[in-house]
Each structure stands twice: as C-alpha cells, then as structure tokens.
Design goal:
The chain is mainly β and 492 residues long. 8% of the residues lie in helices and 51% in strands. Among the domains are: 41-118, Immunoglobulin-like, CATH 2.60.40; 253-324, no CATH class; 326-420. The chain is built from three helices and 40 strands.
Length: 492
C-alpha cells in the first residue's frame, strides 16, 4: 500500500500535475468527441461508429411538424437534426395544408438543406384584384413588387400594378410619349415586353412595325423619360439586354456584332464580338455567346460556330461546333463557380462547363456534368440563384442540381402536348399554365399543386412575401381579371 504524505511539497506538486494531465486528456477526448458529433458521427444500434449527415428544415409557412421515416419528430420548422447516411422519407405538415413529402439521399458528412418546402392550403382562395377591358401581355418585376401589362398589342398602352402592399395595391396608367415609337401610315406595329432590369425600375420593350424594329427603355416611375434606344444610338439593333445592376448600360446585337450601349452617355462601343449569332448577359460584364469564324485546316477553310465568353474586355473561347448547329446557351454563377450550359440543338445532352471564364478550356475534361433530356432541347434556363439548370422540350423537362450533383426528370401532364416554356416561380419551384390551369412543382417534379385556372400566355408573379400569386384570367364577359391567389391561411 502506498503511503502518501500530502504535506510533502513533492507529493502536492505530483498530484497537481496528475490532475492537470487528467483534465487535459479529458478535454482533448471531449473535444474530439464533440468534433465527431458535429461531423455527424454516431453509435448505431449495433454499436458501430459511423458518420451521418445534418438536415436543415424550413417551410413556408413555418411551424410545420416533421416526420422522418414514419416517425414524428419533437421539433417544428425551422430546425435541424442529424440522420444516418442513406435514404430517408421526409414529410412536413400543418393543419389546413397539403403535406409536403420527399424521399432524399443523405451522404456521409453532407449538409442537406430542405429549406424550400412550400406548404399549399387544402383550399385556395382566389379573388379579382382589378378588371381590365383587354390585356395582351404581362411581366412581373424581379423584386416581385410590380406587374407591367401591355393592354393592346398594337398600341403603347401600358398599365402598372404596384403590389408592394398586397392589401392596398396601386394601379397606374403609363403615359408614354406619343413620339417614342415610330408610326407607319399613322399606325403602330406590334409591341412586346422583353425584360425588367434587376433593380425593377426600367422595362425593355420591342416594337416591330413592318421593316422597322426598335427597342425602348421604359421608365416605370417617370414614363416621360423613356428612351428609344434605336433612335438614340442610330443603330440597327436586333437584340438587347440589361446588364447587371446598372440599367444605363446594355448589351446589344447590332447587325452582326456585339456592342456595349451606355444610355446615360448616349455612346456605343466598338464591336466586342464579330459575326455574332446569339448572346446571354450575366452581371455587368459577362456575356456568353456564339459566333461564326473561319477555320483553316491544311488547304481547306471551313466555317465553324464558336461558343465563347466575353468578360472584362477579353474573349474566352470555349468550344467549336458545327456552323449549322442551333446552339442553346445558359449561364450563371453559383457557390464561387461559373457554369455555362451548352446544347447544340439536335443532341439530347446538355454539357455543363464549370469555370470556363477561368480556364477557357475546350477539352472534354472541362465538362463538369451532363444533363440528358432524352430528346432535342428547346429551352435552357438556370434558376435565379444559379443552383438549378432546366432543360425542356414541350411537356418533357429535366433538371440538374449543382448542389447535390443529381438530375431529375418529369413529364408535365396537362391534357395537352402544347406546353410552353416553364418559368421559375422562385429558386426551387417551376410553374406552367398548360391546359388553362396554373400548377407549380419543385425542380425535381415533386409536390405538384394546382393553384387556380388561368388564361394561358400571361406571366404569373409571386408576391414579395410569397403569400399571394398574381395571374390573369379572361372572364365570361370577355374582359380580363388580374387575380390574386392566397397561398397562406388567414390564421398564420
């Protein structure tokens, strides 16, 4: 038996070092365990130490119950929990709403965000906001505060709805200067609403009157200050788009070249890209494009089509394709990477090239992923966040999720094969008006709901708080109703 003399200085010093050592070892062990727990490691029922993943839950509206693999959880949305790696069935539910259901695959160490669940009421209330004698086209603004309506196809007769306060919408008539657009024989031609700028202050409008095609920038707050771009620059503009957050700067195809137009300075750049075919603008200075070029191999000279990116004053070649190819392009940036989607028109597969703006590589190794629609692609688009790529041909659609590196496909069943281009309702939901019913569903085709009946061909806009959906319906009197469908119950 050991005999400790606690009054001994050496003994007390030894005990102190021993205690500190035990505490240090315990701290290291505890910290290590906490790190492993944070990384999703757990002891399973067989006492095996394995890594799971973390799942974040959020719904609109929140305070929904969560059921995982048939077991009701103790928390409501928003919240999170660790789950073993593998496949799980998840449901979110609130009284008075349809249940949200999805089967997910969770990888070891993965952080999975299920933060996009939109709960739809069992009964949706739709009411008329305002009746119009006629409506030809509509377009909602990026900030979801404004709906611009072209009332007649052959007149610059615009109406604006301010839906910033959905309980007190404001209706305005847009007084466009009479000489803004060119008349022939005293008449206008046909008008189109093309796009809003990112700040939701200006709208780009096209007017085609016989052999005259002109583009104008409409100022929603000061319609009298609207500008006819074709007249201002004296150029034959074939196509134009806003750039980034500066609505004074636009990129345009004039004849067959790409130019930068500065509306404030009334100046146009020299040709940025020659022999231009198509282009897509992203941000302030990034343009994905196709153009034609001459390629000489030996003694033979052939015409090729180049896919490239113009950025910061430089042309970055990405790929050469056949001159006859009807190329579809989409460009966006996500999670510190750029993504260029390329489809050659006859191929069912769309290549997704990552960081072409950095590498400029035209090799097959630059292809980050492929999305196969299974048929010719008619439309390509990214969600506004850049996370989802959509490829579509009529009722057939396929999406690729850059976050999870997974693809999904869906056939839009609408009682008709005439399904126009699908539109993004938000970053995760798509909508269609095929068959006269507005329906929404997630990027992977799950959780589909019919919201209301509509007249096809008009834009639909989600309110800024996500609680109402604006649509157009032709009524029995032949007039047009701007309607709002409530996506939340009054007791929320």
């Amino acid at each position: 038996m050991f005999d400790f003399n606690l009054s001994s200085k050496k003994t007390r010093l030894a005990l102190r070092f021993f205690t500190y050592g035990v505490m240090t070892v315990a701290s290291v062990v505890l910290t290590t365990l906490l790190v492993f727990v944070a990384l999703g490691y757990r002891l399973d029922k067989n006492f095996n130490f394995s890594q799971g993943g973390l799942v974040q839950f959020r719904s609109a509206p929140n305070d929904a119950t969560v059921t995982i693999d048939g077991k009701l959880q103790s928390f409501h949305t928003p919240d999170k929990t660790n789950l073993p790696a593998g496949q799980h069935s998840v449901a979110m539910q609130r009284d008075g709403y349809h249940a949200w259901n999805k089967t997910v695959d969770l990888a070891a160490g993965q952080l999975l965000w299920l933060n996009y669940a939109r709960l739809i009421p069992n009964t949706i209330s739709t009411s008329t906001v305002k009746e119009y004698p006629s409506v030809d086209k509509t377009l909602g603004s990026p900030d979801k505060h404004w709906m611009l309506m072209l009332l007649e196809p052959h007149k610059p007769d615009f109406a604006l709805v301010d839906y910033s306060d959905e309980k007190k919408p404001v209706f305005k008539d847009m007084q466009i200067p009479d000489d803004l657009f060119t008349k022939k024989d005293g008449s206008y031609g046909t008008f189109k609403i093309l796009e809003w700028d990112l700040q939701s202050k200006y709208v780009l409008v096209e007017h085609e009157n016989g052999d005259i095609v002109e583009f104008a920038r409409i100022d929603r707050s000061k319609p009298a200050d609207s500008v006819n771009l074709t007249k201002l620059f004296g150029l034959d503009i074939k196509d134009a788009h806003f750039s980034g957050n500066n609505a004074n700067v636009m990129y345009a195809k004039t004849s067959d070249v790409l130019r930068r137009l500065d509306v404030g300075a009334a100046s146009a750049s020299a040709a940025l890209v020659d022999n231009l075919r198509t282009f897509v603008v992203y941000g302030g200075d990034t343009i994905a494009f196709t153009n034609t070029k001459q390629v000489t191999t030996g003694d033979d000279t052939t015409t090729k089509q180049q896919v490239g990116i113009y950025r910061g004053g430089k042309i970055i070649p990405v790929r050469d394709v056949a001159a006859s190819a009807q190329v579809k392009l989409a460009y966006n940036e996500y999670d510190n990477h750029s993504y260029l989607a390329i489809n050659t028109g006859t191929d069912s597969k769309t290549d997704i090239v990552r960081d072409a703006t950095s590498t400029g590589s035209s090799q097959a190794a630059s292809v980050f992923a492929q999305l196969d629609l299974g048929r010719e692609v008619t439309w390509l688009s990214f969600s506004s966040s850049g996370r989802m790529l959509l490829a579509q041909n009529g009722k057939y659609m396929a999406t690729y999720d850059l976050e999870t590196a997974k693809s999904a496909s869906k056939t839009v069943e609408a009682g008709t094969d005439n399904v126009s281009q699908l539109r993004w309702l938000d970053d995760y939901y798509l909508w269609t008006d095929a068959g006269g019913a507005l329906r929404i569903f997630e990027f992977d085709g799950a959780n589909e709901h019919q919201i209301t009946t509509v007249t096809p061909g008009f834009d639909a806009m989600l309110s800024s708080n996500g609680e109402r959906l604006l649509t157009i319906q032709k009524n029995n009197a032949g007039k047009f109703d701007l309607r709002a469908s409530k996506l939340v119950l009054d007791n929320n």
